[in-house]
Design a protein that fits this description.
5 helices, alpha+beta, five-stranded antiparallel β-sheet
């Protein structure tokens, strides 16, 4: 099963203060906190980890129909600039993240699924007409 998540970096910068007291302890494991604090771009690491956790959560929900609420139950590791894994209980989810100046998009899939991940992020200017705009983009590429 595949899960995906996207973080709008501009919106996150305006609406979330990840530096506030207790936030990192509440959401990230000690290893993840160390990754954030060592980074030259901690804001990107915070949101990449968040996106990895969210996409793995969604994949897990589809695979096991199990709600897992605590974000610290999802332990993330980076392998490369775009690849990583998320472990929850005994399951491992491979992740692929695209990091852009505007967003971080992550897809996660369970390792038992032989998945070839590919995607495209489409900027839909008018959210009210989102489905119509998306339909136009998809059908024009067929």
């Amino acid at each position: 099963m595949i899960g995906n998540d996207i973080v709008d970096l501009r919106l996150a910068a305006m609406q979330s203060n990840w530096k506030r007291r207790g936030f990192l302890d509440k959401v990230y494991t000690p290893n993840e906190q160390a990754m954030i604090l060592r980074s030259s771009r901690p804001d990107i690491v915070v949101w990449r980890l968040w996106s990895m956790k969210e996409s793995a959560y969604k994949a897990r929900l589809r695979l096991e129909k199990q709600i897992q609420i605590n974000p610290k139950d999802f332990d993330c590791q980076f392998f490369t600039e775009d690849k990583g894994i998320v472990t929850c209980d005994s399951k491992t989810y491979s992740t692929l993240s695209v990091i852009d100046e505007n967003y971080i998009h992550t897809q996660a899939y369970h390792e038992e699924l032989n998945a070839d991940l590919s995607s495209e992020v489409i900027d839909l200017k008018q959210t009210r007409l989102q489905s119509k705009n998306l339909y136009k983009v998809v059908t024009s590429s067929l």
